[in-house]
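Entry:
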Amino acid sequence: MEQDAETLRDDLRALRLRIDRIEKKLGLGALLAPTVKKKEAPVPEPALLPAAQLDASEGGQAGKALGIIAVVCFVVAASFLIRLAIDAGWLTAERQLGLAASLGVALIVAGLSGPIKDADYLSLLPAGGLIILYLTAYGGALYYKLYSTGVAAIAVSGISLGALVLLPVPLLQHPLFTGITVAGTYLGSLLLPEVQGTKLASMVFFLGWDVAFAFWAASLRSREMLLMASYLGLGCFAASAPEVFWGGEGPLAQTAGFQFLQFLAFCGGVAYQTHWTGKPMTSNEAWGFFPVLLFFYVTEYALLWRLAPGMAPWASFSFAGVVYAVYSLSKEALRSEALESGAIVSAFLAVVLLHAGYFELVPERWAPWCGVLVAGSAMLARPADLRGANFPFVAAGGIVVLINIYKTCFGIGLPGIGQEEVVALNGAFAAALLGAYVFVPWETDKTELDLRGAALWVGTAEAMVGAWNLAEISKFGPFGVTLLWALLGAGLLLFAGTRGDRLQARTGLAVLAAAAGKALLFDVAMSQPVVRIGCLLALGALLYVSGFLLRQMESWKR
């Protein structure tokens, strides 16, 4: 019986294997298998575009335009509502403040209550609400005369404080809301008499908000706020006291001292923010502060010059010292050898040195020799000294050199300087520039090659002018200038031959061409026969030797 059962099991296994083979051949496995219902995958929600892509899209721009128009409608409706309530006779000053504040707060709350998926668009509502609050504070005093301008100044300050309290909310950290807060605050100095001009209340108003915005900008890591506050703070203070800033009478010392305090507040804000955040300014952020630095320097210097002309240049060095100190403290706090803001610091220091150091302090009698010293210092330079943070100083030095070369070449603007000293100046400038061409280890990029060529050509032109002046005071006659030019050109060619310098050789050729042209077109007809023959022979010999040197140029290395 056990054997029969075993045999039966084997037969069943064999039968099952045959059935599986038949199902595979006929494709019946999938049909006979039990059906399993698959779980459907959830449909993903459509992803929102990033804010930058949304603003760049056509629909995003159109939507934002509609949002701005809607906010304008809210503001206009609020103004009509206030006017209607006043005409009806029931809107007192207190009720107006309450109604306008309610509408402004309602817009701010509405913006904050929305889903933060498009913060750029939703920030329009709080911005509109803030505008309404400022308009109400200013309009109630200036247009409707419901309360004094002093009350309006207090109301404006309260609105600004409320906006600063709300600024940490991520939705409100937007340049539009920040800009309205800063502008709405400082515009009070132009509209409200209590905070206009140079009176004590005005100075307390300005300095208080300067410090407040500097502190909040650091806590919010917002250099945009500090930048806007510096522009509007210094600009509105100058605009609120035009009689003092633009040549009229007024407390010059008090105004200059207070504007310097504003300058210190904003410089301190930059240093404090860098130390607080541990993040230096980028190059673009730093250059954003450069115009306001120039504005402060020009207006402050004008005030000091009217107050004490002799002290103004020395006081301007203190401005440069403050800027450099802020930069040095920032480097030390960040433990960095150089920051991206170094370029703007160098530019401001170069402006101060050029204006106060050269134009104001250097006597006009010695200004040309100062130019010679600057040109001569180029022989000590290295290619790396011309780049980066040093470039503004190089540019300022170049301005000094070019101004004085122009003076010595054309003989103008040289009071108290005789013709013999002019010749010495010509020679000194030529030696400095040609020495810089020869001795500075120039590299091969285009900028440095252009500077190198400019030094050679300008130095050669200065030498030719010096030769002309020397011939005049020595009474050599017309051929004397020609021979001196020919000697200069030949000297350049000979020296170029020792160095294999094609550029210098071409310069020497140009000088020889000028000498030959002058001799053949002017000098031959104006000289005595004996002088004419001798000079032509000497000139011919120089030209022949120079021609031989030029033929050798083909074998020189470039």
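The chain has a mean pLDDT of 80.
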